Amino acid sequence: MKTTRVTISAGLVGLALLFNGCANYQVGSTLPAHLKTVYMPVVENRTAEPLLEVEVSRALLGALQQDGTLRLAENAESADAVLRVTVHQFRLTPIAFRRERTTQTTDYRLTLLASYVFTERATGKVISEYNGANGEVDIALSGDLFSTKQAAMPRAAEDLARDIVKRVVESW
Q: Are strands 81-97 and 105-120 parallel, antiparallel or unpaired?
């Protein structure tokens, strides 16, 4: 009987400590309440990879819509905030090789590195910015390198977009 009472007491103390530790945890967005809409111009592409800005812009718009915290505005004038994104690096790295021919790559990792600045449109105040956003995907070589790269790019752009949207919405 005494053992049961001690076990129950210890369990209650443990639960109290657990809930106390979660007291400041917040689910969802921590954006200021007045920020409800965002405008995002086409992503700036500072890499040599053609049309990368189109793929990343598409992925970002989709990620913003899926998240739903901020509604997309048609132009900067009708938005509460502006999200400017710049892709700085496109990297294709060999990560696996044929056992019998160690110079022949079988798998690659495509990595996109980007920065963003999220500003309040009315004041120009920077709400958040980050220079280390990244998206990456591992992909097996299928056919030629160009085809493999084209197949991996949308997935890497979507991974990058999720990283940026998460940081914008939850970085407070």
A: antiparallel
Residues sharing a CB contact under 8 Å with residue 148, sequence separation 6 or more, in sequence order:
108, 139, 140, 141, 142
* Residue 20 counted as domain residue: no
CATH number, position 165: 3.30.160.150
Counted residue by residue, the chain has a size of 172
For the chain, what is the total number of helices (H) and then of strands (E)?
Answer: 3, 6
Predicted TM-score (pTM) of this structure: 0.80
**Is 69 a domain residue?**
yes
Structural domains counted in the chain = 1
pLDDT digits (tens, 9 = 90+) for 130-153: 999 999 999 999 888 899 899 999
